[in-house]
Amino acid sequence: MTDDACGPRRALRKDAERNRQRILEAARELFALRGLEATLNDVAHFAGVGVGTVYRRFATKDELLEAIFEDSIDQIVELAKKALQIEHSWDAFAWFVEHVCELTATDRGLREMICSRAYGGYRVECVRLQLDPHISQIVARARDDGHLRPEVQSSDIPVVNLLAGTVSEYAGHVEPQLWRRYVALLLDGMRAYPGQRPMVVDALDDRQMDEAMKGWHPAG
Predict the structure, then answer these.
(1) Tens of pLDDT along 140-168?
(2) Quick one: which of 25, 113, 161, 203 has the most CB atoms within 10 Å?
(3) Which class is 1-59 in CATH?
């Protein structure tokens, strides 16, 4: 009797887990396409499940975003750690920028999550905070070695991500790899060369960057 009694409960738990994974997969795809403006109702429709099913698994949109993006941002943290293991500091900087843009150029949701503080819960914010010192170190190494323009700061990296993403949104349906062209141009512009004119506008400092990230609401 015990096995018979537990059978339906086990099946229910399996169904619940399948629904949860279905919601997560659909939400990842939807946020990548449409950005963080998508609602839980949109996710339910995209996943082909009832709205109540989504709300039973994720009471708020931030809960769903946290479940999706904690691992995604942690993946960028791991990229930064790998970059710091590359001996040549310029190669490390360029490798990191190219690989981060590869993740974010075609994933609008991830790009918005990195560049805005309007969404995401405590766990996502903790991973963001882990990422910041690694990026600062990557930039400082290349700058101190004379490979990177002295004006370049770590706050320039999220802006590069935004620019690459804008290229994808504008022309990705025509040429999906076009963002690579403009990332290469940006990297060339950030590299130090003799006789360069100084930049006419400073990078955002930490306080300004924090204000920009808090003030930018991708969904409007």
Answers:
(1) 999 999 999 999 999 999 999 999 999 99
(2) 113
(3) mainly alpha
Task: Write down the mean pLDDT value for the chain.
Answer: 89
Please give the full DSSP string across the chain, using - where no structure is assigned: -HHHHHHHHHHHHHHHHHHHHHHHHHHHHHHHHH-TT--HHHHHHHHTS-HHHHHHH-SSHHHHHHHHHHHHHHHHHHHHHHHTTSSSHHHHHHHHHHHHHHHHTT-HHHHHHHH-SSS--HHHHHHHHHHHHHHHHHHHHHHHTTSB-TT--TTHHHHHHHHHHHHHHHHTTT-TTHHHHHHHHHHHHHB--TTPPPPSSPPP-HHHHHHHHHH--TT-
Quote the tokens at residue 70.
Answer: 């904690």
Distance between CA 90 and CA 106 in Å, rounded? 25
Q: Determine the topology of domain 61-215 in CATH.
A: Tetracycline Repressor; domain 2 (1.10.357)
Which structure tokens are listed for 140? 């400082």
Under 8 Å CB-to-CB from 33, ≥6 apart: which residues?
A: 108
Interval 204-218: pLDDT, tens:
998 999 899 888 877
Domain-wise residue ranges, the chain: 1-59, 61-215
CA distance 151 to 220: 31
